[in-house]
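Please think about what follows:
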Amino acid sequence: MTIQGLLYIALTFALVLGCAFPLGRYMAAIFEGRVRFLAPLENGFYKLAGVDPARAMRWQDYAIALILLSVIHFLLLYAILRLQYYLPFNPQHITAMSPRLAFNTAASFTTNTNWQAYVPEAQISNGAQMLGLAVHMFISAAAGIAAAAAVMRAFTAGGLKSIGNFYADLTRVTLYLLLPVALVAATLLVIAGAPQTFGPFITAHTLDAGSQTIAIGPVAFQEAIKELGTNGGGFFNANSGHPFESPNAWTNLLENFLLLVIGFGLPIAFGHMVKEKAQGRALMAAMAIILALGCVGTYAAEAAGNPLHIAAGVATQGGNWEGKEVRFGIPASATFNVSATGTSTGAVDSFTDSYTPLGGAIPLFLMQLGEVTPGGVGSGFYTIIVFALLSVFVAGLMVGRTPEYLGKKVQAKEIKLAMLAVLILTLFILAGAGFSLCTASGVASLANAGPHGLSEMLYGWTSATENNGSAFAGLSADTPLLDFGLGAAMLFGRFAFMIPVLAIAGSLAAKPKLPESAGTFPTTGPLFIGLLIGVIVILGGLQYLPADTLGPLAEHYLLYAGKTF
C-alpha cells in the first residue's frame, strides 16, 4: 500500500461524511413535510392519482401500498421488456427478452437489486432503458427511503397510530431529493464526456480498415440515478469501468460519492427527526468504521498481489492488476467496489472475480452483514435499526433489565420480528447456493472449479438476496434455475425483510415514549457503537463464515500453498 492510496480512501470518506450532515438535515425536512418548493407540481400528482397526502397510514396500510405499487411496476417492466422491439429509441432493433430473463430483470429492478443476467448493449434497447429501467431506479430507491422515513417516525413520539403516508413520502423523496441531485450529477457527467443522447449507435473506423459499432444512448442521466439510488444497473456490460459511464478518475470519485452519500445521510436525518443528533451520529459511526476497515483491507489484499505471479517473476508492477481499470488503479478500484457492496449498489469499476481471494472475500462479507455500511438508500438504515434493537436487547440481557431504545421498550415481539427478518435472508442465501451446487445446471454455470467456483455461486445468491446486484463475473446466470431462483431471492430479500421491519415500526410507534432513567443504556457513546459493530459482525460471522471458509478463505490458503484449480 502507498500513502497516496490511503489518502484517496481518506478523501472519499471526508467528502461523503462532510456532505452527509447537511444532506441529512435536508432529508429530515423532506420527511417532515417542510420542503415544498414544488408544491403545485406535487399536489398535481396527488390529484391525478386520487391520493390524499394527509391520510395517516397504519403500518399495515403502508406496507400494502408499497407492495401493491411494486407489483404494478414489476408487471409494467416485464411487459416493457417483452415488447421492447416495438418501443421507440431502438435503433439496433433489439428483440424481446425471453420470459424467464424478463422475469429476472423485472424482479431485479423492482427490488433495487439491478442484477443483470443480460448484456445491456445487445439485449436491451434504449427505449426500454429509459422507460423501464431508469424509471424503476427512481421508484425503487424512493420506496426504500420512504420505508426508512416510516421507521424514523416510530421513535419520534409515543402513542402514534400511524407511520406516515407512503404516497406522500414516495412523491416528496423523488421530487425533492432524487430528481434534483440526479440532474446535477448527470450534468457533471455530460461535461466530463458521458453520452446523453437519443441518437442511434455510432460506427467507428479502425486503423486496420475495419469498423466497430459502438452503443450510445442517454447514459449520463441513468448513470447518475444508478449510483445515487444505490441501483447499480449499468448501461453497458462493463458497468462503471466503461469510459462512457465513467470517463475519468474524477467521475469515478463522483460516482463513489453519489452511491454513499444518501446512505450516510439517513442516520443524520434520523437524529434530526428524533431531536437527538447524537443518536444519528452513533449509527453513522458504526457504518463508517466497518466500511473503512473493508476499504483498507481490500486495498491491502490487492496491493499485495498474486503470490503465484510473484513467485513466477511475471508480476511486472506491484499489486494485483487483473480485472482492474488502469485509469483508476488499485486504491480507487478497491474503494469503489467495497463502497458498492457496503451499499446495495452493485456497480463496479473493476471485476471482483479477478480479485485475490481475500480481496473478494471482503465485499462478499460486507453483503452478508446485511448491507448496513451504509447499505442501500433506505434499506441500509432500517436494517441497522434492526441491529440496534438486537444490540440493546443483548445489553438488557447482560444487566437484567428490559431493553429500551430511544425511550421505546424493546420486547419479545420486536425481537422475534427482527430475527425473522434476518433469518429469511440467511435461508435464501445458503439454501439457494447449496441447492444450485447440487444440480447439473448450477455447476455448469460456474467458470471455475474448487473454492473459487463456490465463491462465485455463494456471491451470486448473496448479491441477489441482499439486493446488491454485483457478481463474481464468472457466473453465467441466464439459466432457468438462476433466472427464476435469483429472481425469487430478490423479491423475498426485499419484501420478506421489509414487512417485519414495518411491523416493528408500527409496534414501537404505538408504545409510549419513556423518559431516560439511571438504568437506561446509553446509545450514543463508544460503548454502544462498539456493541453495535460487534453484533453486526458476530451475527454475520455465525451465519456465513462456515461457507466463506470453504470458498474464499480456503482459496487464499491454497493460493499461498501454490495450488490452483
